Inverse folding.
């Protein structure tokens, strides 16, 4: 029987024993994301900055940097100076832009579900304007549970609506996106 890697053991342990600090999740989640999205077409961005798109009336004129407009890594015009910072964004590295695949926000167990869900929904709304991949999901890790949302903001079903509770479920959520994205690109998963 193959030995479970130490980072995966840590992730499995964290679910039934939520840590005091949300940063305690970052290493194991980053490792899992980089393990699943290990192909040459994906990239895990930690603490990535999402800048809002400009209002429609600013788009009519060509952008000038002195007007506070710029182009982000996702190929969208953005307003400089204002940004939001989810814990992780996993992107598909395309020829001319990064295509959002997964947005992950981590909160400690004592945080409010409603406030946390509102925050991940806000990130999802911002990313929806940047033409995410059709397989895009947003994942909220709240203590020992996680919740998955579509780009439309609809929460994926989970047992009794209480979220998923195991690292295996989180891994399956990542794998589902990775397999569908690689299949669409015509590539096999190297794992």
């Amino acid at each position: 029987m193959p030995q479970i890697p130490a980072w995966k053991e840590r992730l499995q342990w964290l679910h039934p024993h939520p840590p005091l600090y949300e940063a305690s999740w970052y290493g194991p989640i980053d490792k899992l994301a980089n393990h699943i999205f290990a192909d040459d077409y994906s990239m895990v961005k930690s603490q990535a900055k999402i800048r809002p798109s400009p209002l429609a009336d600013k788009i009519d004129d060509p952008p000038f940097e002195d007007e506070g407009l710029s182009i982000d890594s996702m190929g969208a015009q953005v307003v400089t100076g204002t940004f939001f910072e989810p814990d992780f964004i996993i992107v598909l590295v395309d020829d001319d832009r990064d295509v959002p695949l997964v947005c992950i926000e981590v909160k400690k167990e004592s945080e409010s579900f409603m406030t946390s869900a509102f925050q991940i929904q806000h990130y999802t709304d911002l990313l929806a304007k940047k033409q995410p991949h059709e397989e895009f999901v947003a994942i909220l890790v709240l203590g020992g549970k996680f919740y998955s949302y579509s780009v439309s903001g609809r929460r994926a079903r989970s047992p009794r609506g209480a979220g998923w509770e195991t690292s295996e479920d989180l891994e399956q959520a990542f794998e589902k996106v990775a397999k569908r994205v690689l299949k669409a690109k015509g590539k096999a998963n190297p794992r």
